Amino acid sequence: MVSTTSHLFDSPNADLVLRSSTPKGVEFRVHQCILAQASPFFEHMFQLPQPEAGPSHIPVVDVSESSQTLEYLLRYVYPVPKPDVSSLDELVPVLEAASKYDFTVVIDHLRTVLVSPPFLASDPVRVYAIACRFDLDAEARLASRHTLTIDVLDGPLIEDLKGITAYQYHQLLNLHRARAAAAQELLILPDTVKCMMCNGTHYGAFYPPKWWKDYEERARKELAARPTADIIFSMPFIAQSAHAGCERCAGSIFDAHWFFADLRKRIDDLPGTI
């Protein structure tokens, strides 16, 4: 095999070479003392008989990780600039390698990266699946809250779901169903919210303004898909109901600002994690 040497890990006083699987077996000249300090896996390995030394009389260990994964892993261990993990596709193999070799310091750092705002905003279900796969309970709970902003049953089928159990996936679905049902039960308009033209009482029964029926129907549907308050309390969503009412309903909605604020708080206060 024709090998090249990593430009970041080419120390002349290295006492071990890690050789990646692809591409072309890139060699990383490293120090056993640093790896042993950071990883119980390597600490125990170095107590065993060592593999045959290479031409430079340094032991060579072939690993299954790609050169990029191995470089990212070592950059978290060594006092060099840390890598910029810009996608979950980059993060997963490094986290897998860190778990495999028991690099706790790397795992701790990647846990923070996994639940960084960009990843939670763009792909919360995938973050949840990755956290579950690697038994990162706190990160899984945080990600589960962010999945409330999307319709989990209408999303793409992602490979990372293969790594979680049916129980963990059911936990996520149960969170969505339970929160949606609880939020829908809160959609009750008090009789103090009135419209000067289109509501009132008839034989003792209270009839809400026309805008409320439209709002309630659409809010129930939205909460069933995404059980969070973000959409149903947005101005465009509420304004659409004003158009469905009478000519005085817009004023009724404006006067009901206190009701919307209270309703939003009660929905926000509902349990939001697995």
TrEMBL record:
<dbReference type="InterPro" id="IPR044714">
    <property type="entry name" value="AtSIBP1-like"/>
</dbReference>
<feature type="domain" description="BTB">
    <location>
        <begin position="14"/>
        <end position="78"/>
    </location>
</feature>
<protein>
    <recommendedName>
        <fullName>BTB domain-containing protein</fullName>
    </recommendedName>
</protein>
<dbReference type="InterPro" id="IPR000210">
    <property type="entry name" value="BTB/POZ_dom"/>
</dbReference>
<dbReference type="InterPro" id="IPR011333">
    <property type="entry name" value="SKP1/BTB/POZ_sf"/>
</dbReference>
<dbReference type="Pfam" id="PF00651">
    <property type="entry name" value="BTB"/>
</dbReference>
